[in-house]
C-alpha cells in the first residue's frame, strides 16, 4: 500500500549548500524573514519583491523545485477569505461599488492594498517555512530547538510525537478505510444513519485509538527502561555555532531589518 | 459474478502496482490469491469494492460497474475483511461493530438485530454481542471481523491473509468456517496448506501481474512455477 | 489527504497563517504561550514521573491522528475533533497543554497549517485555552455530576463545545487586533464554530464514554469522580438526543448573540489603538452595510444582528463553496494509500 508518509514530511533530499547548513542558522534566518514580513507596512511592494527574490533564489539554490514549492505554498490560501473583508472596510478612494437592495458594497484603494499585502505576506511566509522544512531533516530541527534552549521535555515530546505520527495516522487511516468499506447503501433506501450515530461512531474510533496509543506508549516506555532510561533526557554535547555561522545569521537578520526600515522610510 | 478487465493501477507517486489484471469469479467460487509481499494482493482486493480505482480497466460485480454511481451498492455486495482485526473492529462492542454496516444501510432495528444474530451465528460467535473486541483472542476477533461483513449480506468475500498469526486450533476453525460459508471468495494468503484444503482455484500475482490462474491441484504440481514465485508446497 | 486536510482546516479555520497577525499581536501571544508552557513544563516535572514523556509524545501523535477521523455532516462538509477538552479530561491539564501544543507546533512545521510567527497565538488558542476550559470547567462539574452517565456526557459536551468557542473567540480577537474588521470576523467565526463545536462535543462524549467503560484505569484524572458501575452501561439514544438538543440550543443562542457581543466594535478597536497595536487608523466606516445598519430596522441591536448575520452568511457561503471545490479535488487523493 502506498504510504501517506511522503505527504507528512516536507523534506526533499538534495545536495546543496543550504542542505548542509546548520539547522540553527536556517531556523533563525527563517524566523527573521517571517518577522520582517509581518513588520512590513501595507503596500511595501518593493520590500515584498526583495524578500520574494531572496526566497526564490534560495529555493532555486537548494534544488527543491520552484514549482513544487509554489504549489505547496497554496495551503494558507483558504484563510485569505477572512481577509476579504479588508477590501471593503478601509476608508480610502472609492474604486468600485455595487448596490443591491438596501446595501452597498464599496471597494477602496486602501482596502485593495491592505488585502493584497496580507495575501502576499502570508504566501511568502509559507514559502519560507516550506523552504526550511524542505532542506532540514526534522531530527536536525529538533536538535536545533534543543540547542536554542527549548526545554528538553518539549523537544522530547515533539520527537516522540513525530516518531509515532506515522504509526498513529496509518492506524487512523486503516480504521477510516474499514469504515468506508462497510458504508454501503441499498438501492432506493436512505443510507448513512443519523448524524449523532455517525458522530458516536467517530467518537468511539477516537476512544479506541486513544487506548491503543496509550498501550503503545507503555510498551515504548518499557523498551526505554530496558535500555537504561532513567528519566533524564540526555543528549550528546553539541558544538556551538562557529563565528562564521554567527556572522551569517546576524548579517541576514540585519539585512531583513534594513529592508523593513527602508520600507518605512521610503514608503 | 465478478469480472475484472484490463485493470491497471499506479500509486499517486507513479509506482505501478497492478498491470493488466483480468479475472472472473463465478457465484460461490472460492479462489486463493498467492504471491510474495508487495506483489499487489491487497491492492487488488481494495479495487473490488472501489476503495482504490484503477487508472485503466473495469471492475464489474453482479452487473454493477464499480464507479461513483454504484459505489455504495457495491460495498454491500463485496465484504472486505482486513488482515488486522483491530483495524476492522473500531467499535466498543461486538454488536456495535457487526451492526455498523446494516445501520449504515438504513435497515430497521429488528432487521439489524436479526442480521447481527445471524452473522455471529455463522462465524460461531453467537452470544458474544456485548463483549469488547479488546478482551477477545485474535482468533475470535478474526471471526467477528468476518461477521461484520456477513451482516451486510455480501455476495463476495474479499479476505486479506485471514489465517496469519493464528494458533493451530484457531486456524483450523477458520479453515472450517471458510469451507462452510456458501459465498464466493477471493482470499489473499501465504498459507499453502489452507489453499490446498479450501480453494479449488488459485491465482498467483507477481509484481502486479497475474502470472498463473489455474486449478489449485494443477498449480501445486508445477514445481517450477512454485519455485519461480517463492511459493512452498503444502 | 493533503487537500482533505485543507478542506477540513478551512472549515475549522483556527490555524492562523503568517501574514494575518500584526507583529505586536503575534509577539504578545508568544509571551503568553511561553509563560503557559513554562508553567506546564515545571508542573509536569513536579506532578508526573518520567513515564509521561513517551506517553505525552504518543498522545500528541494520537490527537494528530484523531483529528483525521471525521464524519460526514452535510453536503460535503465533515465534523472532526480538535481534541483540547478531550486531552484535558483524559490526561490532566499540564500534560494536556504540552500534548496539544506539540500537536499545533507539528501541524505548523510539517503541514504549514498555521504560521511560524503565528505559532504563539495558535498554540495558545488551540493548546492552552482549550485545555484550560476543559479542565477548569470539567473538574468542578465532575465533582458535582461525575458519578452519573449523563453527567459525564454533559461535561464532555459542554467543555468540548466551549473549548472550541474559546479558541474561535481568541482567534477572532487576535485577527481583529491585527486590523481585520470585528463586525465580520467575530460573528462569522463564532457562528461557524458554534456548529463545529457540536461535532467536537459529540465526538468527545463518545470517546470519553468509551474509554471510561473500557479502560477506566487509564484516566487517572477522572477516576476519582467516576462511578464505574453506572458508567459501564451503554449510553442510550434518548440521552444522546437530549444532550444534542441542549447543545444545539446553546449554539443557536450563541450565534444569535454574537453580533451583540461585538455590538461596539469601535470600542474594541479604540482599545487596540490606544495600546498602539494598530498603526493604521481604525475609524473606518463599515461600508459593507452603510453605518452597519439595515435601513428599515434603524439603529437598533436587531439591526446590528441582521447586518452581522448577512455578513457572516456571505462569508459562510464563500467558505462552503471553496470547501466543496477542494473536496472535489481531494476525492481521488483521499482514496489512495
Question: Care to describe what's here?
Answer:
The complex is a heterotrimer of chains A (267), B (234) and C (337). By secondary structure, chain A is mainly alpha-helical. Chain A folds into two domains: 5-148 and 239-266, no CATH class; 152-181 and 195-225, no CATH class. Chain A has twelve helices and two strands, in the order αααααααββααααα. Chain A has helices at residues 5-8, 17-20, 23-39, 45-61, 66-72, 80-83, 86-89, 109-135, 138-147, 152-181, 195-225, 243-266; strands spanning 94-100, 103-108. The radius of gyration of chain A is 25 Å and the shape is flat. In chain B, 38% of the residues lie in helices and 25% in strands. Chain B has helices at 41-48, 71-77, 85-88, 94-104, 109-122, 138-150, 168-180, 192-198, 216-221, 223-228; strands at residues 2-10, 16-25, 30-34, 56-61, 64-65, 78-81, 156-160, 184-188, 201-206, 209-215. In chain B, helix 4 (94-104) packs across helix 5, helix 4 (94-104) runs parallel beside helix 6 and helix 5 (109-122) packs across helix 6 (138-150). The longest helix of chain C has 34 residues, at 301-334. Chain C has 337 residues and is an all-alpha fold. In chain C, strands 1-2 form a two-stranded antiparallel ribbon. Chain C is built from 13 helices and two strands. Chains A and C meet through helix 3, helix 6, helix 7, strand 2 and helix 8 of A and helix 1, helix 2, helix 3, strand 1 and helix 5 of C.
Chain-averaged pLDDT of chain A: 83
- Rounded to the nearest angstrom, the distance between the terminal CA atoms of chain A is 55 Å
Q: Taking strands numbered 1, 2, ... along the chain, how are they ordered across the largest sheet of chain A?
A: 1-2
For the largest beta-sheet of chain C, the strand count, sense and barrel status come to: 2 strands, antiparallel
Total domains of chain C? 1
Fraction in helix of chain A: 55-70%
* CATH architecture classification name of chain C: Orthogonal Bundle
Order of helices and strands of chain A: HHHHHHHEEHHHHH
* Class from helix and strand fractions of chain C: mainly alpha
Gap from first CA to last CA of chain C = 9 Å
- Indicate the overall shape of chain A: flat
- The radius of gyration computed from the alpha-carbon positions of chain A, rounded to a whole number of angstroms, is 25 Å
Oligomer type: heterotrimer
Any idea what the radius of gyration of chain C is? 20 Å
The count of β-strands of chain C is: 2
Number of strands of chain A: 2
Poorly predicted runs of chain A are 1-6
**CATH fold-level topology of chain C:** Arp2/3 complex 21 kDa subunit ARPC3
Top-tier CATH class of chain C: Mainly Alpha
